[in-house]
Amino acid sequence: MNEYEIAILFDPDLEVDLEKATSKIEKILADNKAKVTATDNWGKRKLAYQIKKHDNAVYVIYTAEVPGENVQKIENILNITEEVIRFLIVRVDQKAVAKAEAEKVRKAEQAAKRSDREDKEEDEE
Description:
alpha+beta; four-stranded antiparallel β-sheet; 4 strands; Alpha-Beta Plaits
């Protein structure tokens, strides 16, 4: 099982009843042995260019563990799903994620050191 990020742009008219559309997508993923580990709803956003005569779309990002042989099946189903105006399936690069996490920790440590230094300087004054 590989980890994938699945970005789906829903028809903006579905914003009111998005629950039905997302449950349909989650069923498609489950039927193809995908295990959804996280869902991130970004809400309605303006598109850089029109897609199927829409200027806006509702962005929902799924993180899922999917068997490699089922990715193509999921793509084929999403291509014919009415609610979806565009989608992108990308395999997560674990090395890049680990590097980003290490960088985040390093920056947090630097910020803590700076804060400690500033506190000491204030105490000396």
